[in-house]
Amino acid sequence: MSIGAMRAFGEEGVAIPDQIELITIGVDTPGFEEYAAVPISAMTIPAELLAKECVNILLQQLEGKTAQSIEIPVEFISRKSCGE
């Protein structure tokens, strides 16, 4: 989606990062972002950890327990789409 957004902004004459900053967010992003015309900043969520935590919450709920809030660490990779 971020590549499509980049293209749409370009077609409308919106400059990245001068007029708008672009970040892609995903689970273990595939890595294509750094090869875009303007390398796209990324926020990645570790898929394996996210899956484990989701299963733990589901098991807690099945046992009738109240699931607790969790925090999943993310990694931010700054590239030119955010003015690096």
Structural commentary:
The protein has a three-stranded mixed sheet with strand order 1-2-3. The mean pLDDT is 87. The protein has one domain (2-82). It has two helices and three strands. By secondary structure, it is of the alpha+beta class. It is elongated, with a radius of gyration of 17 Å.
Largest sheet geometry: 3 strands, mixed
Number of domains: 1
Outline the low-pLDDT stretches: none
- What radius of gyration results from the CA coordinates? 17 Å
Gross geometry = elongated
Instruction: Kindly state the number of beta strands.
Output: 3
Could you give the order of strands across the largest sheet? 1-2-3
Report the end-to-end length measured between terminal Cα atoms: 21 Å
Q: What is the percent of helical residues?
A: 25-40%
Structural category is alpha+beta
- The average pLDDT is 87
Run of helices and strands = HEEHE
Number of helices: 2
**Which range does the strand content fall in?**
15-25%
Keywords summarizing the entry:
84 residues, alpha+beta, three-stranded mixed beta sheet, 31% helix
Brief rundown of the structure:
The chain is α+β, with helices and mostly antiparallel strands and 84 residues long. The protein is built from two helices and three strands.
Describe the secondary structure blueprint for this structure.
Blueprint: H1 2-11, E1 23-27, E2 41-45, H2 47-62, E3 75-77
